[in-house]
């Protein structure tokens, strides 16, 4: 399954609205200008995501995970490689580095950043879809991309797809790349894409 | 029986309530969707001092006005539209202020993380739940861990710096050793191949100067090694500070004149007695003077003043030279440290001189300080030394000027396995008209003495030689019959430590001179030893 050019454009536009909001929140939070961009969105079966992402993130990742429910339901994850997570944390709080595994305060910082980002994206989807999306409390984990995705597959049934959103944080002249992975059932994905197309048509 | 049959839902409600009120080790606030406080747990009562009755029924932002005042109200608006918010203490420090008595010692505000979660019923947000956790202990232990890591990183950096300094020093040392050698070898070759050159004097002068500078370099290195290993011994006697400084000035004067740098000396008229090793102290003063001269341009001035301040003797060397940057100032007396270690640096030297100076001063119970207003503002070195109680009889030994025939008629036996040293001494002593015999071993010397083929007035011997050494020579010589037995003997040796001197004197030598010995000093020593022997012999006879 591939996104049409229209769907791709519309999703990027929508996500950028959400990222704009998240960037503003992060700038306010850190008193530094934080820019967030979505250069690319792809969609693929969840089975292929690990392989695709492991090509770009070799090490363990720091991932912030939130479950969302409502008419469109699924799992949303922000994934940063550990280096990116460390850079982000230091740029945001100017504390010298400790390994993330023993730095609960840094993990909280990453969790809050992920929370802001995930809320902004899914909140924007909710607005477009005119439905309320409910979230779980965000959880941060440190493991491999494959491990994270495997644990998400275990308790879910049916064919599921992942919307992989490439994210670029720009702050203090440094760019940190991350991935937003939104995992949806076929039904949820279908609904989302239809609404996205409708939104795109209405806005032309 | 009925109790046991309670539905699970009821039990869960009871558990939740019990957890909320008693079990939770964190603050829990429940509001309705107008943000009116509906529940306020006992942890919060304890921490904030606000009783549940004073919180419940009131708007949250009235109960805790700082939430809205600090811009955190937006999180509640977000929660009311279904978003979960997590607040990291790094970003927000705290959500709900606590009373002073609840703060850890030394803290001025709470250290909290918080979660603000929408409370939903049938998909509708009906209120919010706030959970506040005190993380001050965790933050303290993280800070300690971070400090430990910083400390160990700093230690590693210091070690890396030290090793880099040593590398630089080795590079500098190789360069400094090679440079004079190049000059010596180059000019030697010229002398050899062009027997008739006009610049013969110039060649010799260059060779001498470079050899001398190399000797000083090696001496500095050895001194530093001795100081580092605690083996530097001082020959302390009571001397005048002015004499030492003047001696150093005498050495530096020609260089200053050549460079057109004026030296202005201002000495206190009354002699200032100090307990010091005259040679070492002169070396220390010379190091600072030559440093000043090195960094002062033509037309500049070096002011040298010697003063007494009660029990402290002060020597100030102030120059108008290139000064020292504030960054380098703290490292001036560090070993191996030079302001400019690059290969293109303008000034030579090992960077040991000032380090030695400080060590020597400290061995004397004194100190040295440096000041500089910065680049091109000159530098001022200030020595402090304790004044000695009394000035012992100053052995005012005025160097006799030796006449060209001073050693006329004196028979000298030179024992040295090194042909160069032998030859050098032979030529030098013959220049004073001495009658010189040289041998290359102790055995040969003893054979000559035993056979009576030579009856020397003075014996000059090396110590370290293959086979029998200089100690053995003197022991054997002292067991000969007169007049050999009482022949004055001078040890000229590369074993230059005070211990070596003691050993040589104990073995029977009258004098100990360190190699390379100045030929004129050897000649003077021969003269005075010979004179002493003749007068005592006369005395004996009369």
Describe the protein:
The complex is a heterodimer of chains A (204) and B (542). The model of chain A has no long low-confidence stretch (mean pLDDT 83). In chain A, 49% of the residues lie in helices and 29% in strands. Chain A is an alpha+beta fold. The longest helix of chain A is centred in the N-terminal third of the chain and has 26 residues, at 5-30. Chain A has helices at 5-30, 46-54, 82-93, 104-129, 145-154, 186-202, and strands spanning 34-45, 61-69, 74-81, 134-135, 139-143, 160-171, 174-185. In chain A, strands 1, 2, 3, 4, 5, 6 and 7 form a seven-stranded antiparallel β-sheet that branches. Chain A contains six helices and seven strands, in the order H-E-H-E-E-H-H-E-E-H-E-E-H. With 542 residues, chain B is α/β, with parallel strands linked by helices. Chain B has four domains: 8-135, Beta-Lactamase, CATH 3.30.450.20; 145-229, Signal transduction histidine kinase, dimerisation/phosphotransfer (DHp) domain (Helix Hairpins); 237-388, Heat Shock Protein 90, CATH 3.30.565; 391-541, 3-Layer(aba) Sandwich (Rossmann fold). Chain B has helices at 8-23, 42-48, 52-55, 60-63, 65-69, 73-80, 89-92, 136-193, 200-228, 241-259, 278-294, 353-363, 419-431, 442-451, 470-477, 498-507, 519-541, and strands at 27-32, 37-40, 85-87, 112-121, 124-134, 237-240, 262-267, 273-276, 301-309, 312-319, 367-372, 379-386, 411-415, 435-439, 458-461, 489-493, 511-514. In chain B, a hairpin with a 4-residue loop joins strand 1 (27-32) and strand 2 (37-40). The radius of gyration of chain B is 42 Å and the shape is elongated. The model of chain B is unreliable at 391-400 (pLDDT under 50).
Structure summary:
The complex is a heterodimer of chains A (204) and B (542). Chain A is an alpha+beta fold and 204 residues long.
